[in-house]
Amino acid sequence: MAKYIDVHPENPQPRIIDGVADSIRKGGLIAYPTDSCYALGSRIGNHDGLTRIREIRRLDDRHHFTLMCADFAQLGQLVHIDNRVFRAVKSAVPGAYTFILPGTKEVPRQLLHPKKKTVGVRIPDHVVTQALLASLGEPLLSSTLLLPDEEEPLTQGWEIKERLDHQVDAVLDSGDCGTVPTTVVDFSSGDPEIIRVGAGDPTRFE
């Protein structure tokens, strides 16, 4: 059964956050809130966590996973980014955007798009997510908690606990979470291509 963890939305308790981070380090898969909607998260390199995310969401190998980063220092280790793209991305973060970029050797091969060798990266603007990333000390493998055949992501921690009780190890709940996923911008060719319009304002990249 999944552990249900209630955390303060503005002042997340360090002891609770550290416990969740420790669970992730030990191979746990969590559901957690972000600045766009709930997401599934596990440690990068956790093959079992990756498999479980694929099973929950029924994803194929062409799906772009997202690496949730605390800041640009982490993001820069995971993707190749030139000066022009750097400036465009820098102006939009932290925020509800996911950027598709060529992955570096730091990214496990199974997380890269099989043909393009790209991966999604983002820096969230959410107190609880940032506290978790700070405690973890490394980026978090992440995927929007959108279940198969459903149009909107799950938004309530208690509902996630009910529906995924035997599929995740913990549900981190900090109150209401949005239903709109991130805006996805593909910079892999050097020029921005909006793949999905979501919570982030897409006009800055049009």
Automatic annotation (TrEMBL):
UniProt-listed Pfam families: Sua5_yciO_yrdC (PF01300)
Occurrences of domain YrdC-like (ranges): 14-200
Gene3D superfamilies according to UniProt: DHBP synthase
InterPro entries: DHBP_synth_RibB-like_a/b_dom, Sua5-like_dom, SUA5_domain
PROSITE patterns in UniProt: YRDC (PS51163)
NCBIfam families according to UniProt: L-threonylcarbamoyladenylate synthase
Protein name as it appears in the record: Threonylcarbamoyl-AMP synthase
Organism: Streptomyces hydrogenans
